[in-house]
Amino acid sequence: MSLLAVERIKLFSVRSTWWCMLLAIALPVGLSALVATNADRVDVSSTQAGYQFGLMVMLVLAALSITTEYRFSTIRATFLAVPNRVVALAAKTALVAGLGFLLGEVVAFGSWAVAKVLRPEVALALDDSESVRLVAGVGAVFAISAVLAVAVGALVRQTAGAVALLLVWSLLVEQLVLLIPNIGTDINNWMPFVAADQFLRGGGPMPTDLPYGPWGGLAYFAAITLGVWLVAALVVRNRDA
């Protein structure tokens, strides 16, 4: 617990964490308000239309949590205090993942609540398992994404490189593979963030033809993330700080 407390102090002692948290909440909630105000048709799924904006900010926050330690060499003090580097990395990952889950839930229920207030005449009750998954599931996606970002940050070490890799991959690369002749769609179906989006959107009003269901998408995304994190843990354990 003391290691988690130390990581919490390090994480929340920098202003970038607070700014990222503010943006991660404000952007999707604000977009939800715009959608609720201007859209002709509003449902539970549409209240979460802006979750990806918050997710991108969460990726940046999680990557910064470890790359800034390498930038300012504070990671060396951490590894001196905790010789087991994997344990130190796991503590940081657990803390950031927990923060990601909380942020995701605030984003999701905040977006839903804003839409419900602005459009009281629309039925937005969370009265079935699908609608609950569409909203409450955002926290799980944020948490897993945070783990992935910490792992990428540990591998790359540099803030610019880690952030660029995460954002370019999630926003651009996964869509560009669709341009590959014949097999582009099949490859895109197995992209990690596509799988995460399937968990939050699959089975809704616009179902996709992916080879797995919503929960299968979450499991696949988690498996990919775990694999990347294990590689990062191995590299951190064996590479000089």
Walk me through the structure.
The protein is mostly helical and 241 residues long. Helices cover 77% and strands 0% of the residues. The chain is built from ten helices and no strands. It has helices at residues 2-12, 15-38, 51-71, 74-81, 85-118, 129-156, 159-176, 184-189, 192-201, 214-238. The radius of gyration is 19 Å and the shape is globular. 41% of the residues are buried.
Q: Please outline the major beta sheet.
A: none
Number of DSSP-assigned strands: 0
Structural class: mainly alpha
Give the number of domains.
1
Note the total helix count: 10
Q: Can you write the helix and strand succession as a string? A: HHHHHHHHHH
- Beta fraction of the residues? under 5%
Uncertain residue segments: 203-207
Helix content: over 70%
**What is the mean predicted local confidence, pLDDT?**
90
Overall 3D geometry? globular
Give the distance, in angstroms, between the N- and C-terminal Cα atoms: 24 Å
Provide a quick synopsis of the model:
The chain is mostly helical and 241 residues long.
Set down the secondary structure blueprint.
Layout: H1 2-12, H2 15-38, H3 51-71, H4 74-81, H5 85-118, H6 129-156, H7 159-176, H8 184-189, H9 192-201, H10 214-238
Keywords: Membrane, Transmembrane, Transmembrane helix
Protein name: ABC transporter permease
Transmembrane segments: 18-37, 49-68, 89-114, 134-156, 163-183, 215-236
